[in-house]
Design a protein that fits this description.
alpha+beta, 7-stranded antiparallel sheet, 7 strands, elongated
């Protein structure tokens, strides 16, 4: 009887060891894939349907999208750091429309935390040279819609911002976390 229980326990532990080994191989394989060949930066591949969320988030409506002129989607780091940016041509938008739509701010008069977030997101020119420079954005006819700002205290560590330039009929999106 003791021998039978011993053999049964031995088989159960061997099965459990096999299941655990398989689980470890799958977890290691997933992390190896997601930090190497499965984690690539993709440039200028975004379509209209990929960027619909940008105009829907700020309640302008995705039916205005004409085309995506530039896009950048970085690979994700293990800690979740990323950079996504899009340049979108739209059919129409007016300053009056943005002036009275809740959530939009003129770039020449921003609340402190939003101003810090705009400055934080402007430091990516080496990755996305087509994205407007900060000095070109800080004008009274440019508006920003802050979808989210992640802070450490009152210092932004990440943000998702939507810039609208009515004169150019352009929308720029940047999402980043550092």
């Amino acid at each position: 009887m003791k021998n039978k229980i011993y053999n049964l326990g031995k088989k159960a532990l061997m099965i459990w060891g096999g299941i655990s080994l398989t689980g470890l191989i799958l977890i290691f394989g997933y992390f190896a894939y997601s930090t190497s060949i499965g984690n690539k930066t993709v440039e200028n591949k975004a379509t209209k349907s990929d960027v619909r969320f940008v105009l829907n988030w700020c309640r302008l409506g995705d039916e205005r999208i004409e085309k995506v002129t530039n896009s950048y989607e970085s690979g994700r780091s293990f800690t979740g750091d990323y950079l996504d940016a899009y340049a979108i041509d739209i059919s129409k938008v007016t300053i009056d429309e943005l002036k009275y739509k809740e959530g939009f701010y003129r770039l020449d008069s921003l609340p402190e935390v939003l101003d810090k977030a705009v400055k934080m997101t402007s430091g990516w020119q080496y990755e996305i040279p087509w994205f407007p420079k900060l000095e070109n954005l800080q004008k009274e006819d440019v508006y920003v819609y802050p979808w989210s700002i992640y802070c450490n205290g009152i210092d932004p560590t990440g943000a998702e911002l939507i810039f609208v330039i009515p004169k150019e009929k352009k929308v720029y999106y940047i999402g980043t976390k550092m």
